[in-house]
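hi! just following up on the protien thing from before. the input was this:
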Amino acid sequence: MQRRLGEVYDRLNAFEENLFTMDLTRGVCLEYWEETDELDTRSLENIETTVNDAFDDIRLVYRCVPEVLEILDESCLVAQNIVWAGMNVPYPRDPYYHAERLATNVLRAWLDIYMEKMVDKMLEVGNRIEFLQRNWRECISNPSYQACRRRLDFEFYRDQADFM
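and the predicted 3d structure came back as:
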């Protein structure tokens, strides 16, 4: 259990690093923002893409686990809305510092809202995987199961062919 909890927190720490270090000014037209005190549509789309990119690695790991993906998708949408609300403001004195502080705020909000849910679901998935692995190991190593008998027959005939 302790090892599994450590693995969960390692994955989440890597995700948090992606979320914290996302470059919210990537693809933002700073000149337009400074001139009009609002972001253009393309800049907002780039911000949405940046947030999606921060979620890509952890989504890939849990792509086959609907319970975790559901939480990730919901939290990604919330993060995008937080970033949109934080960036769609009059041009700040220092847009890079503004974006850095906003990324910090997004991370804090994500931790407050979703961290506990993610840990619980990730641990639950880990438990199910270990249960399946344990049962599969039993099935392929105990001759009372047909899967083991097939494996033994296959290995016997394969090895017998090697001796001839």
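The chain has one domain: 2-163.
The radius of gyration is 24 Å.
cheers
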